[in-house]
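Researcher: Structure for this, please.
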Amino acid sequence: MAARKAGDRAKSDDLPTMDRIVAAAYRCFDKFGIRKTTIDDVAGASGLSRPTIYRYFAGKDDIVRHICALEIRKVNDELRRRISRAGSYVDLLTESLLLTTRIAAGNEFIRILIETSDITSRGAHPDSADYPEVRSVWHSLLQQGIRSGELADDLSKEDIAAWLALSETMLLMKVDAVAYTDAQLRAFIKRFVVAPIVADPAVICGQRAKPGKRASD
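Model: Predicted structure, token format:
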């Protein structure tokens, strides 16, 4: 990972206390990794005492959740700027997943957070405190699909959002392992991630059955 600038600590001393803690946590996670970072590390990097840290955050996991929310919002904002509204709903959902994967792959802290499996599994679970931030990335798209009847009606919005969150983890692992082109990744996303959640997956698979006749007949 890229090294932090030497002046970061001095600049962070002028920030409000919570921002100083978060800035210090970023540096510690960058230097030591999420799992190895301790509250003592964050306290030392921020120039604050442990009791002060605990006045703002319940513990390291709470800091991680806060940073996860900040980074997910950045991805969400970037997605809104870059995604085109043209094309079918299936294409829109596919392109959103493709862009999110590419953006996240280039975001060092999203990568750290996603690669920490216990955080990922908590964030994808509908009952998790992290879940609203993950769900926010997809809220407007899912609302659109529900209104238009293009999402499977036997799945709740929470089920679909959890599936998309877990799929993003899988997609990041996939692009790490193989240098897929956008066309290859787009085809994979459409067939294996989007098809299971839409109302008419046969359209994606190219196997739309004629009325009264099964696709396999």
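Researcher: Any notable elements?
Model: The longest helix spans residues 60-82. The two ends are 55 Å apart (CA to CA).
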